[in-house]
Design goal:
Length: 215
Amino acid sequence: MAGAPTVGARILAFRAYAAVAWSAQGQARLKRLLESPDTVPGVKLSSNDRFRIIRRLLVLDDPDAPALLTRQSEADTSDEGRRQAYAARSAIADAQSKQKLLNAFFTDSKLPERWIEDSLPAFNAVEHEQITLALLEPALSALPELKRTHKIFFVNDWLAAFVGGQRGARALQIVQRALNDRGLSDDLRRKLAEVADDLERTVRIRARYAKDFEK
């Protein structure tokens, strides 16, 4: 991020770091990037990059993240800024907040489809799987309606986020039950089976090796 030979490589490294930083040290470094925009040589952080950092901090439930989101939302009131702020709010680690957002995904006819798509990854961050597990079943039950009311690739993104954000056996049971639902159309069943494969592999690997990691 700081020493790559080209600006393009430094930008890629920054965005990768902003997506995976996890430790307390990583959170502190992300906040320093917000306060010291010259930390990455030759790279001026865009408003979207700043929202990207804040979104990650919200996923990690950093205590400073809500204030940082408010500040950046006030600094960028453009249409793009409002879209980024909405997506960032989906990263808040709170069950009530996520339930409210899910309800909006289903019922708010004025909510742009692009805003929902941008919100899905942070909404379903694996760090929040204990929160989003309760929302997996209604998310899968909504598939026929989502197929009817949204663009062709929306369901793919929806499944990739809701199933991809889970790693546990209970989630796999919910997905398998949905796959066995005779009322599910063949095309939706194929889409669900595709993303279920990764979850099934994850559950098997964790069941086999979890004790080794604990050591």
